[in-house]
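ESCALATION

Customer reports they have been waiting on this structure for their group meeting. Please prioritize. Original submission:
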Amino acid sequence: MKSLLRRARNRPFPKSRPSAAIGTDYNILMIARLREEAREGRSPREAAGLALRHAGPTVAAAGFILAATFATMMPAGNALLTEMGFAVSFGTAIAAVN
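Update from on-call: job pushed to the front of the queue and completed.
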């Protein structure tokens, strides 16, 4: 078990997977809102502005809530959980801002 944990700990990909997944989900939400605004006859620039104005705060709030959820792993007292909690919560917070 220790060798498995040691190998998982040295790989950055599993730590970035939740951040990439959450970014993809939020992009889908933003594109859906953009298409909805465009279907109502708005110009692409106006549709993008409205989509960002309406869906942006929801995306940002959900991202920060998810980051806070992963951050609760940090005080666990286990080095692996602390590292994973920090890496995933930090990556998710960065994805929510972008």
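Sent to customer with the following note: The two ends are 37 Å apart (CA to CA).
Escalation resolved.
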